[in-house]
Amino acid sequence: QVQLVESGGGLVQPGGSLRLSCEASGIIVSMYRMGWYRQAPGKQRELVAGISSGRITNYADSVKGRFTISRDNVRNTVYLQMNTLKPEDTALYYCNVVVVAQNYWGQGTQVTVSS
Fold this sequence. Notes:
Elements: E1 3-7, E2 10-12, E3 18-25, E4 34-39, E5 46-51, E6 57-59, E7 67-72, E8 77-82, E9 91-99, E10 102-105, E11 109-113
Parallel strand pairs: 2-11
Antiparallel strand pairs: 1-3, 3-8, 4-5, 4-9, 5-6, 7-8, 9-10, 9-11
């Protein structure tokens, strides 16, 4: 059974940093494309960053140069390092993986950027 558990969210001032973690069980993260998504109130869920099994990464234009997705194969965990945070980054952040055409999501971790 695939399970994704996010952590690391919180309240941070504009310009600050956070690192989100997504610990996976039931899969080996290095074998799949893993993604971070976010959903702000009243908005659709959007892709923030993804990392393929070959460590090829992609980012939403709005976070390029500020966010970095990475993977620790030993810990079976995917990270999202978020720097220079802006109020518009405020959202619930989710980890995602597609296994055999089925989407799996974590419970989400809230990120709030506010002074």
